[in-house]
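We now fix the convention by which a protein and its fold are recorded. These numbers are not coordinates but entries in a learned vocabulary of local backbone shapes. A record is reproduced here so that you can trace the correspondence yourselves:
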Amino acid sequence: MQNVLAVNKCYNFLASFHRVNSWIKLI
């Protein structure tokens, strides 16, 4: 269960990073 939580946290981090990255490309 702890492993799933870690993967979910990592996925959220990657998703937010990707969103910020695409937002920077728009500028």
About this structure: The chain has a mean pLDDT of 93.
